[in-house]
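We close this part of the discussion by returning to an individual protein. Part of our work consisted of pairing the sequence of a single chain with a tokenised description of its backbone. No coordinates are needed to read the tokens, only the vocabulary itself. The amino acid sequence and the backbone structure tokens for this protein are reproduced below:
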Amino acid sequence: MATAIPVLPEPQARALASAYAAAVSVRRWRGAAVLVTIILLALVSGYLAHVRPVTLVTNIGNFGSFIVRTIPDFSSGNLLADMRAWYWNFPAWLGLLGQTILIAYLGTLMGAVAAFALCFVASANLARSRWSRVGARRLLEFCRTVPDIVFALIFVIAFGLGPMAGVFALAIHTTGALGKLFAEVVENIDMKPVEGLQATGASWIQTVRYGVLPQVAPGFASYALLRFEINVRGAGVMGFVGAGGIGQEFLVAIRNFYYSDVSAILLMIIATVIVIDLVTEQVRHRLIGFEGAR
């Protein structure tokens, strides 16, 4: 049986079409205004930061020439010997690279534990009081606002040269970064299990343990692994201020213009980060149930 489709009267249809066109026009003007504002802010920021396209184009060759100088000369008839000469200090560099990874691991572990302890207090839906939430939030902001290299320099002055300064610096910065991410994960949970536990008289700790933790555990682990990748790169810079790892050897090579050593160490760092990224990516995908990792 055919169903008749009602047709609006012509004046009403024109009014609705005009209202729709006006709404679309307003949205387009708003989008254009936002885009223009972003472009203007970018231009002003570039001007104040002395970003000059002409200078970039003029001096881009210096960057390329430096990269070319770091590549050693290889001969087809003596390739193996050239590779050995390029990585002449491989055992020592490998040991320092391993130290860098351990610094990143320990700093990530300590920071993740501290962030785990603070995130529930810092979340709006679980905080017992407004003041405890504000205090936890401000503490996390302080930890992640101060650059980790500054923390490393302070700890080097306090405790002397060595990996311990790098571990503590990464741990503090990781606490601030992961604490915010963990708190946002907690704030996005389903509150029905929490309300059910509270209705049965469960304590705050029991509510977190049985109503919140099962929901947030995969997200916490995923963010912690991601932070470990970031900390491996960060730990590689800690050696610049004497906080251990391969960064100090890398800085020595740059300062003394040991070009082949610069490229050798840099390639080791890049390869390590790639391997860690691939491994942790698979682990993260399995934790969150991503089908592409299977």
Summary: The radius of gyration is 28 Å. The longest helix spans residues 10-48. The chain has two domains: 16-62, 93-293. Residues 11 and 248 are 77 Å apart (CA to CA).
